[in-house]
Amino acid sequence: FTHKIYQSARPHHTTSALASSILKKMLATSSAARSLLARSVRRAAGASSIRTFASIEPYADYGKSVFTGRVADDYLKKHGSSADILDDPAWTKTHADTVAKAVLDWAVDRGANTYCHWFQPMAASGVRHGLTGQVQNMMMKFDRSTNDVEFDFDGKMLTKGETDGSSFPNGGLRATHTAGGYLALDTSSPIFLRGDTVFIPSALVSYYGAALDEKTPLLRSNAAVSKHGKRLLAHLGLD
Questions:
Q1: Cα 226 from Cα 173, distance rounded (Å)
Q2: CB count, 10 Å around CB of 182?
Q3: Of 79, 98, 80, which Cα lies nearest the Cα of 90?
Q4: pLDDT tens digits for range 205-237
Q5: What SS3 class is residue 167?
Q6: Considering only CA atoms, which of 177, 175, 161 is closest in space to residue 213?
Q7: What CA–CA distances, in Å, run from 194 to 2, 86, 152, 198?
Q8: Which residues pair with 190 in a beta bridge?
Q9: Where would I find the H helices in the chain?
Q10: Where is 160: in which H helix or E strand?
Q11: Structure-model confidence comparison of residues 164 and 222, the more confident one
């Protein structure tokens, strides 16, 4: 009888040892431990509750910090326009003030009071280790008559910016008197907000139009591919 008990308990002992070994291997990494813990919690919760549909409530603010689509449309409508004007790059010349007013309203509602023209100078992805360039300014001004502070942001401030480009690699492209770097708004990238700052994607070029950043060559390449791609399609009768 004792022998039979020993024989029947042995497989149980072997199984327990195997399970213990597997458990140790699973817990060898923190990710495995977290996965096992999460599975246990789900099982415990499932025993006392009924599973419901997933909720999108945690993502309700998704996209609210990017000035495009419905977000841009809501604010532009307050100024007699719509997000459709952003589809044409010419808005920087025809509707700059309107867009600037909408961007200011959006920024204030999101708790921002600063804007910057954001660019990637030459060597940003190399020796600069991904660091970008920013020229930050407050979206405010002092009223000279009352000395009060008020919000201030117009089309010129939105579309134009200038920085000292002499500190960026240039390969002898410019003389000292033309060392200024000129920022131009990149309409192919949406304006976005992070923290208390509005980021305006921009391109940086020299006095004579030489690229001083890593985005300008990309934009020019995109334009060239688009131009000649359309020409090829036209020859193929697919225009």
A1: 28
A2: 17
A3: 98
A4: 887 788 888 899 999 999 999 999 999 999 999
A5: helix
A6: 161
A7: 74, 21, 19, 6
A8: none
A9: 2-26, 30-48, 69-77, 91-94, 96-109, 155-159, 215-235
A10: strand 160-164
A11: 222
